[in-house]
Every structure is written in C-alpha cells, then in structure tokens.
Amino acid sequence: NPLARALVLRGRAGRDGEQNLMRLLRVPGRRSGRPHEVPVRVATWRGARYVVSLLGDAQWARNLRAADTAELLVGTTVDPVVGNVIQGAEKEAFLDWYCRQPEHRLSVRAGLKVDPRKLTATETERMVRQHPIFRLDPAPPQ
C-alpha cells in the first residue's frame, strides 16, 4: 500500500506511544526471496513486540514463518527482527490481553471480528486457530 508506506516512512504515522504502532514489515518471499513490505500494527506485551495477522494466514505471515527473519521499518530506521510464531497458552494469554486493550479495539473488531466486551472462550478458540501471531525478537548481530 503506497499510502501506508509513505505515512510510515516519511510521515509521523506510528512514531509515538507504546501500543498499536504502525510499521512496515519487510520480509523475504518464500519462493522468490524478493523483499515484500506490508504495513503492520505492533503491540507491546510483557516487554516484547508482537504482530497479529488480522487476515488469517496471509502471504506475509507465511513468508515470515518460512524466513524467520524480517525488518521493521519506520522513517529511516531499520530494525532487524526474528519472527517467532506463538502458540498454546502464550497465544491465548496474548489474545485475551490484546482484545481488552482500548488501543487495539479497531483491529479486534474489524480484523479479528470480535466484540471485546463480549469475548467468549469459543471466540478465543476461533482466533487461536485462524490468526497467526508472531513475537518479534531482536535479530542477533551479524
């Protein structure tokens, strides 16, 4: 999305605060190896950064799962990261927290299709199955 790219790289979008920060995620394609960029919203939970694939098992999520490594971009800053898929209890705990945060309300309603005020165990199970979540750890120095 050229508009999102311009807002993140040249504008002020996503530069302030700790939650719901807009970044570009640059991840190599799993077949071509060419870098692909997608705007993502970053959540900070328990001192770590996370991204949720709001569209389910999207191409960028498949690419990140295959490559493990990516870059987060904002302005002129490039932050190398390792994408670790979270599962099980960590994923359920993250989703429970994520759905209750006011900063993520729009993503929860539009992307996860959940009313955070009426969150049920059934909806949580559906989200766990349908939406990959990655913890973005700092990449080791090269």
Concise account of the structure shown:
The protein has helices spanning 2-9, 59-67, 88-99, 105-110, 121-130, and strands at residues 21-28, 35-45, 48-52, 69-74, 77-85, 133-138. The protein is of the alpha+beta class.
Total helices: the number is 5
Class of secondary structure makeup:
alpha+beta
Described by strand count, sense and barrel closure, the largest sheet is: 6 strands, antiparallel, barrel
Strand neighbour order, sheet with most strands:
1-2-3-6-5-4
Q: What distance separates the N and C termini?
A: 30 Å
Taking all residues together, what is the mean pLDDT?
87
Order of helices and strands: HEEEHEEHHHE
Taking Cα atoms only, what radius of gyration do you get, to the nearest Å? 15 Å
Q: Name the helicity range.
A: 25-40%
Q: What spatial form do the alpha-carbon principal axes imply?
A: globular
Total strands: the figure is 6
Q: Low-confidence parts, pLDDT < 50 over ≥5 residues?
A: none
Strand percentage lies at 25-35%
